[in-house]
């Protein structure tokens, strides 16, 4: 945030006390500023991706070329795909069509929206379930550890989260596969899909979700624990403790609210790791998500498909970061 | 041993604890780097049946072509660890210099801050797929370049946040007033005060590099099939895991152990005060 914006935001906070309608207007303005900032960042990212793909050797026309095709045929297809137009013109067209939900046409002539309509919800389901599990277990473990600082549970959770946070998702997947599928036979090792392209049974989600959630839980449990430790030193928490309130109440009612901004930021940074990890885990479990689409389209130099995937994941991450911004704004606004 | 350590027995205990936490990572790294010298078979010659049970010429059984799993294990670690070390060194070095300059030149600082904001929106795996495939013949080098490019934005942020209070100190102002040049201020005045941060940053970048490089190996972006990369072994042999579990279990355990022990070492080396700032990914 620039200095002018900070000053404006501070001025807005001062006015908040004045009246309720004004407060609503300033909140709306603050949200609009944050939204606009996120939108600008996302479009810059897409421009960078467009330019990066353009710099790659080879393009969609030559990647889709069949054996024995003459250079004239490739040039004709290049013209058909519009690849002979300047990059900024194609990027401009693509960006202006974006708000209408049109992600363009792939190098094979399919609509990108159609290509992504089945895998994207599957990946979001996988990532969303892993995110929910991560948040719930990280909060539970972090609070449990913070309730008895320095005790055996605190030390054990601290060690376990340090150990798990560094594990790559595919290593966790291999362990789960061997343990829950090959040796015990409890869960199916690969994902079967129904005719509409979604997983056939919810049991096929258990292992991918666990593989994604375990490392991120380790990471977030540490953040929860650290944020609660910082809050435990805050004057109002010490006062509540000295007033003789039960430790549980002090932890949940007095320490936790102040820890929300740090927890929200930690969870938001996990989103990118979850979506990136999902691409890898999908490969191992044969899960019908964005990973499969992405692997094929990168090999084909299919700019609109890659840009579409980056746009979708970028939009999801932007939304979660926006949520974290709002949590921070609300907590800091409530307690200046 | 320094004199103060002899005089005061108290600092010794944390030092011993640090050593205990650093030792496994160090040992594993040395073992993996020396691995190719210990391997009983060449990495690409079949010595037994595909997915053979452990025993005979292959103590851990055979892989999908009947090659010795133990030998491939011993060959597979050195390049992963070497690559990760190189990435960690490059990221730490570049980020340290950029971070020191960023606090002295606010325009550069804001630019780098925006770059880090941007990098958050691109999951590392997606960025790595883009960059590694941008350079089809690049192999392992392309992965290393991608890992360095993706690691720098966060690392700069960490160094800049640690350097900001140093840059506001009186001795920097005095040096600026006496007309010292920018590079002198950054490298001679600020950098020596960031030793703990830089050391911790190096450890964490090593952890992140092990993650990114093994992920690339698993996605078959870097090392190509005849090579004995641990992550690639898991990907190639996942189909035969039921016939000879060792063929995925051992490389999986090796990567897991490496990641965990390196992380424990980085954690032990991190200064307690700067820990929350440094762990930001």
TrEMBL record, chain A:
CDD domains: TM_PBP2. Its main location: membrane. It is a multi-pass membrane protein. The chain crosses the membrane at residues 31-53, 124-144, 156-180, 200-219, 258-285, 305-327. Residues 120-328 form the ABC transmembrane type-1 domain. It comes from the Bacteria. The keyword Transmembrane helix applies. InterPro entries: MetI-like (IPR000515), MetI-like_sf (IPR035906). It is found in: Cell membrane. Keywords: Cell membrane, Membrane, Transmembrane, Transmembrane helix, Transport. Pfam families: BPD_transp_1. Belongs to the binding-protein-dependent transport system permease family. This is Peptide/nickel transport system permease protein.
From TrEMBL, chain B:
CDD domains: TM_PBP2 (cd06261). The chain crosses the membrane at residues 18-39, 80-104, 116-135, 141-160, 198-221, 241-266. It comes from the Bacteria. Residues 81-266 form the ABC transmembrane type-1 domain. Keywords: Cell membrane, Membrane, Transmembrane, Transmembrane helix, Transport. Its main location: membrane. Pfam families: BPD_transp_1 (PF00528). It is a multi-pass membrane protein. It is found in: Cell membrane. Belongs to the binding-protein-dependent transport system permease family. This is Peptide/nickel transport system permease protein. It comes from Streptomyces syringium.
